[in-house]
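Figure S7 source data.
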Amino acid sequence: MIEARGITRTYASHGAFTGARTVQALRGVDFTLPAGGAVSFIGESGCGKTTLGKILTGLETFDGGELVVDGVELSRLKPRRRAEYFRRIQMIHQDPYSALNPTRPIEATLGAPLRMRARQTGADPAKWRERASELLTLVGLEPEAVLPKYPHQLSGGQRQRVVIARALTVDPQVLIADEAVSMIDVSMRLGILGLLRDLRSRLGISLVFITHDVATARYVGEGGELHVIYRGEVVERGLTDDVILTPVHPYTQCLLSAVPIMRGLEEPGPDRTAPTRALDERSPTPGCLFEPRCPFATEECFTTHPTLVPLDAGPASAARTGEAGAGTDTAANTDAETDTGAGTAEHQHACLHPQARRVVGVEIEVGAAST
Ligand SMILES: Nc1ncnc2c1ncn2[C@@H]1O[C@H](COP(=O)(O)OP(=O)(O)OP(=O)(O)O)[C@@H](O)[C@H]1O
Ligand code: SF4
Ligand SMILES: [Mg+2]
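Tokens for the predicted iron/sulfur cluster complex:
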């Protein structure tokens, strides 16, 4: 349904102290989201998650790569036709309060898109209220109680459910949930996550789940893929459980050591790895992007940029000799992924010295590719 091939996005930024510079928010991201499937992206703040979500919903442009929806490459379409494809992909933002107009009651918030959608599909616009009630019930709200209210009269969890109902008014096939529960009271998070999971199974909606929280990615994206993104580059990916239970990239291991996992939540594990230094975007190396922070970096990591390879490939094949700057050689990235079957749930990593280490309290065997 959605195929992203080598998506890149570079921003020009002008800081008071840093001067003019460019930020590579995405460096050749590829993934395939099948109908009814789930792909989660995890990574720390600033790694490009929201940029990717916005690109997928047409709220942001990209400067390299291709976005294919239902077999159609979107950049070839005129804006009007492109909008029809983007209608199928709706985004749930982090902050449900700012996503809703505070001056409009919920009935107005849902009524307008429902009437418009009815006109597009040839249905009766006058029946919007029935459909609004149906959607509110679907997202676990009491229609009669909620429809006349204003956003400030609802709890954070209820607001986010309204936002989800509004996204559903246009019959989307894909929902992009960008940190959808991070601003909601902890007690209500599980309900929203359960709802997103439910929508997958009940309506067959596909999900792109964006988070910095491995546990929620595992819960919502069950059976789907997990992509670990570092400074705009995917450094490990595969079936969610494979990546979580056998993380081989040091960055993935850092993320897992920082966050509890649902199954084994109480067992954080004794042998954790942690970043040795804070993120410093001003010192790009020609080699591995994670090298300045990696506790296992070697000299080779400083000069050679690793690209995604299957877990059982030897370290030599993880390397693409890095005379090109880190992450700039999208073509090389794409070639490697063609070789290794992009879009499959094959467990892949981009590390010259991958090693299964003991994290999250489970004994993990040393991978075949370890050095
Ligand atoms: N409009 C913009 N102009 C300039 N730089 C931008 C813009 N949008 C994003 N960036 C930069 O791109 C990078 C990725 O930002 P993005 O918001 O996608 O990160 P994120 O992973 O969603 O972070 P967070 O977890 O904090 O939400 C950051 O370095 C950010 O500063
Ligand atoms: S390639 Fe080297 S620096 Fe990069 S993650 Fe692997 S060991 Fe660390
Ligand atoms: Mg974000």
